[in-house]
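Consider this:
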Amino acid sequence: MKCDRVVSLVAVVVALLLLWPALNSALTPVSRTITVDRDGGGDFTSVQSAVDYVPDGNQAWVRIHVRAGSYTEKVTIPAEKGYILLEGDGSWNTDINFNDYAGANVRRRRYTSPTYQSATFTVLADNFVAQNIAFKNTHNAYDKVNKSQAVAALVRGDRNAFYDCAFHGFQDTLCDDLGRHYFSRCYIEGGIDFIFGYAQSIYDGCTIVSNMPPSHRHNRPGSITAHGRVHASDPGGFVFKGGEVRGTGRQYLGRAWNKYATVVYYHVNMSSVVVPLGWASWNAGDDTSDVVFAEVGCTGPGSNVTGRVPWEKQLSDAEVDKLVDMSYIDDGWLDEQPQ
């Protein structure tokens, strides 16, 4: 009888040890919750006001809960305001939106790209989490012929994670700019270079949707990604694990912003929106030897690789494992974030 109790106790201890990473993540505390309600029922009526309330140099997680509704404003999480958890009441119920574009005649800052300045939502801080909320740039929502760069979200901090979020735009929807980022079960739509930047990111179970009109510029394809790795020694690359690519029009899986661009699709379901060539060399020109564009184990009518560009990379099992394993972006920081 005593032996049975010991065995049971050992089993419980082993189970707890196995569950510890998940329990540790789930129990990561927030120091306080700030509520945003556009109708006045919370602490603030705008998201930016709530962000501004977080003290500079913040080191304890603060939840900013944004109640259902559309918030028309540009929001920036400054570099000095880390450890913010921004959550909505569902990406279909809660959104931050703005109509801005790279050519707008409202620029005051000259030290950064007009494309970057067009962003509805900008994260400059390390240690940031968003969940159950949508980010929209409405500039090209209807007119996709006279299009312009119009960013919905710019992500530049390190250790940034997004869960069940949505990103809506057309050209340059999501600027995945710098740092290590994790996107889980997110919805991202656009038509031209709509996931672009230099970051090192995993897109886990995300839905990628082309909203390119079928007749756009004589049916010229758009591009889902434009990765910009500049040097061989630079970290960076977009890895899509699971999820799907679908929508309207025609899309390249990616085009090379710079000669070391890195994009991998792993076990992604692809509709016929993907063009047979798959990829475009763009700024890499004729020298694509250092471009790492690859597909591994993908399914669906768009995954047929018989018509792909000849320079698409064939990765070894070890190379694939290195890219798709969570250690590619995570050295433990994901377990230290609240969800």
Q: What stands out?
A: The chain has two domains: 28-152, 191-339. The helical segments are 2-26, 47-53, 114-117, 317-324. The chain is about 15% helix and 30% strand.
